[in-house]
Amino acid sequence: MDVNYELYKVFYHVAKTLSFSEAAASLFISQSAVSQSVKVLERRLGQVLFTRSTKRVSLTPEGELLFKHIEPAINLITKGENQLVNSKDTGGTQLRIAASDTICRYYLVPYLNRFHQTFPDVHLKVMNATSLQCAQLLSENAADLIVANSPNPALNHSMQIETLKEFSDIFIANKTSYDYSGAELSFAELSTLPILMLSKHSTTSEFLHEQFLYHSVELAPAVELSSNDLLIDLAKIGLGIAFVPDFCVEGKTGDELYIIKTKEQLPKRKLVLAYDGSLPVSGPTEYFLNLLRDGT
Fold first, then answer.
1. Helix (H, G, I), strand (E, B) or coil at 231
2. Is the pLDDT score of 92 beyond 60?
3. Cβ-proximal residues to 273 (8 Å cutoff; 6+ apart), any chain
4. Among residues 173, 160, 170, which one has the least CA distance to residue 240?
5. 0.85 surpassed by pTM
């Protein structure tokens, strides 16, 4: 069946917004043109795709079925167009990577260095965001790949997700200010102490809140920040007990900081690589993916 792509594009925008006027605004055409295009598509397919009333528009079962197939196709075309535009804007190939400040500093830097040595002419765009925000950037095709914490509710089945490493989260403190060496503190006991942790809109914060809730303990942090490095600095001067990933303090514990042992065991988390597996990747991008996979 020969159906013009433009008709499917109009259908997609109406189905997405459930509004002929909003679809018209998105496509920069008149509302009557949108309505006419939908009628033409319905006539060619021999199916009614929308139920129309004076107040609302809704998809028929046939329309919902078509939308499930059209949406990924439109998204794939849009992503391909964006890749071409980005390549043109940067004068050549670019690689867009999104990761949190902590992951960039303590995990990605060596890989970025090796990549740059091998592909000095490829434009590297590194975007700093929380792991939740990184997943959103990938969904919006604003990043080619991300390295993020998992569990992460923003990661979804449309993404290709690969585990890079496991890590543990730990509580650290200044021994002079909080000397619990040789002891194991329960979450209930920890909750009475000033906890320093990442802000609410982070996977790390969500994780710790869930763990405390699972053990029926209310968590009310004394300090919430957006930087693990700053949390470590505050723990060093005795302002509280910082909750951070273990790879942030490798080689840093000793005279100033020590790890507080807990009675309840925290599950390990993962660093994961995520990208859109439905899109072809350039040679440099594939090289960077393999660097991360090899872990060397």
1. helix
2. no
3. 145, 146, 147, 161, 162, 163, 164, 289, 292, 293
4. 173
5. no
